[in-house]
Fold this sequence. Notes:
- This protein is an all-alpha fold.
- The chain has one domain (78-371).
- The chain has helices at residues 39-44, 57-99, 105-126, 136-162, 165-171, 173-187, 193-212, 218-246, 256-277, 280-286, 293-319, 322-331, 333-343, 350-371.
- Helix 2 (57-99) crosses helix 11 and helix 5 runs antiparallel to helix 13.
- It starts with 38 loop residues before the first helix and ends with a helix.
- It comes from Malus baccata.
- It is found in: Membrane.
Amino acid sequence: MSSDFKLDQVKGHDSEDPEVGSINGGLHSILPERRDVTLTDRLFRGSRGGHGEIVSVANGGDEEREHGSARKSGPLLSGTAYCISSCSMILLNKVVLSGYNFNAGVTLMFYQNLISTVIVVLLGFSGVVTVEKLNWKLVRVWIPVNVIFIGMLVSGMYSLKYVNIAMVTILKNVTNILTALGELYLFRKHQNQKVWTAMFFMIISAISSGITDISFDTVGYAWQLSNCVLTASYSLTLRRVMDEAKKYTRSGSLNEVSMVLLNNLLSLPFAAFLIILFDEWEYVLNVDVIKLPMFWVVATASGLLGLAISFTSMWFLHQTGPTTYSLVGSLNKIPISLAGLVLFKVPLSPPNLFSILFGLFAGVFFARAKMS
């Protein structure tokens, strides 16, 4: 579910703030070292030419124009699909949790992850995507990452329930700060002066936004801060675990789709345990909202969009690159925040609005600074 999930550097890739709302925990943003035949190659490339036929010069010119047009429209189309799926996912999660007053965040997570698991498995069986065959050694290595992943999703769910979308987006900037500090401590990775300046701006915006938040909720802020810690931990832990996990795969690598499947599939038994532990199953059986067909439509759509974020982000990354993806991800926060303020009629004061806009600016400045 939610977070602006971190596109951290993995073997030389640019870093980026992860997406608020991604059901797959931003796995799409952690790029493996090598890309063989990816999902985007299969779904979005189309056929490439001939089997030895002699093509006329005129036809060759037409084909060149078509390929040139595809190259120009590809980044725009993939970027638009990524932004729409990302914004829609966050808004739908907010509708399910707050609009329908649904108080079973773990159950919603379980349902969404189940949808993602079923779809990826079906795509794997049909040969549309390549999925690594799971084995016990691979699962055992991945479990620590998965536990953090579940905590990240659950805390993200509950923060969205109690805190408005704009504030969640601004507070998520704390994740960038924690990750940078973790990289400095664990990997001895030093940031440039612009990055530290951007992080200082983000700290100021987070503090001022919280102080001026008219709808301030202590429980919601506690969940969101927990989410920031868990998201940063997830990103830093994943960097270490990925290299170890590759040793237990047949191909010697772990593609994005396989990581999506690992996280979603392994989360199901843990989520089921939490549902029983927190007595959510009893709440879900008795709550009236589950009798509404529209509730299931929205909940299912949010699960499908969670998976769509993974696929569209892979497509967008393939069409452009981590740098463009990073900047678009930061700019994408602006329409998400404004839409959340308008659609959910969030009470605002001028100081709070200024703090939110300042935080959005700081996020974009951070992305630009990471590119320099």
